[in-house]
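fyi for ur records
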Amino acid sequence: MRRYNSTKKINDLKTNDQVYGTVKLPRIPVSPNDRYIISREGDRLDLLANQFYGDPRMWILLATANNLGKGSFIIQPGLQIRLPDLNQEELESIFADSEENR
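which gave:
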């Protein structure tokens, strides 16, 4: 999944440079196949994404599904973390739909 595939580019009014517009993150649907873990000391969104999805860039999926990551990858120990059961095609569709509907 390429994070900025469906993100609109706009011209910066001050510099006239092309920049990416604001992104509205999607709602990640809850599934009975989702897994849950309890975070431990040292857990980070990018490390968990790499462990469970094989790609640290999927941290945004975990952050969005769990309303985490406001300025940091670090997760407090003892939190229940939902690991959405989504394949690559579903992920791309969710993020693309989010961009189209903002």
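The beta strands are 9-11, 18-20, 35-38, 80-83. thats all i got for now
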